[in-house]
What does this fold into?
Amino acid sequence: MSNIILGIESSCDDTSAAVIKDGLLLSNVIASQSVHEAYGGVVPELASRAHQQNIVPVVSEAIKRAGIQKSDLDAIAFTAGPGLIGSLLVGTSFAKGLATALDIPLVNVNHLHGHVLSHFIKETEDTEVPEFPFMCLLISGGNSQIIIVHEYNKMEILGQTIDDAAGEAFDKCAKVIGLPYPGGPHIDKLAAIGDPNKFKFSKPHIPNLDYSFSGLKTSFLYTIRDAMKLNPNFIEENKADIAASLQKTIIDILIDKLGKAVAQHPEIKQVAIGGGVSANSGVRAAIADFCEKRNLKAFIPKRSFTTDNAAMVAIAGYFKYLDKEFCPLDIAPFARVEV
Ligand code: KG4
It folds into this structure.
């Protein structure tokens, strides 16, 4: 008998629904919200309203594209957090309503587990997936973590950010040089034509496997501000070099800790990356190189599975469903990290 799971993602500013059948992706529909562009960041109230408008058409489209009927679904998986609470409430309430109407189990998914388990989304039967245990560098807009994944539903956090996440470092620094939100993809593009060694920004000295990016943000801000006092055209004249140097610094910080984590865990033979920042070209190249030098197998996700998408929620929900880990109807979403 096959298992068909509908996944719903509404943690930030993308409304997404996906259908997975026995681990195989049948559909993945994403409606992005352009309403935030004018504000230089996501406006929570506007995000919830847009989710409210998008959720019914997005779910209907995912079911249609999957070539199934609502009555074929075996469970509804939804992102319970972390994220914007108003946005999460839309997906959570919708999932509860649909599961009740269809009289099928409801499965709560941690958004971060979704990013990690995105490597198990099969687009064809031949998709290669990691073997346990593997290490995952999770780098998104809200979190930076090094995790050992022991099983689908058993993860151990070795280190995480004590302040800003890698994505925040990209976005906040990008804002300083006048790039639109989210700045990460713009830095990525500019970095491709810049000199990564032109400018030096400070790196943190945290002894364990935790990350910190707020010092880099401050050093970046002061460097740019001082340079602008001497030359008001500094940013315009050096934009690509600034972007490339910033990207290199963030990558160095990420790779340095990952190196320590891998050295402490010789049993690990495979390293995966996940989360929005894993879409970054420099990060992807650095991870491939890191793994090749250490004879590790690298798992680098398809770009469409790096940012928020319901396919990863559906796959994480699928594995919880197989373990019969359902949730009650009175479950409440949560805003902050809870792994
Ligand atoms: O995983 P995600 O969609 O949201 C969270 O769950 O937090 O990640 C969003 C983050 C943003 O900070 C965005 O700037 C960053 O991912 N990002 C990138 C790139 N694409 C997205 N950062 C650097 N280079 C990229 N190409």
User: Anything to note?
Assistant: The first strand starts at residue 4 and ends at 9. Residues 12, 140-142, 167, 170-171, 182-185, 188, 275-277, 279-280, 307-308 surround KG4 (CB under 6 Å). Strands lie at 4-9, 14-21, 24-32, 75-81, 106-110, 134-139, 144-151, 154-160, 270-274, 297-299. The chain has nine helices and ten strands.
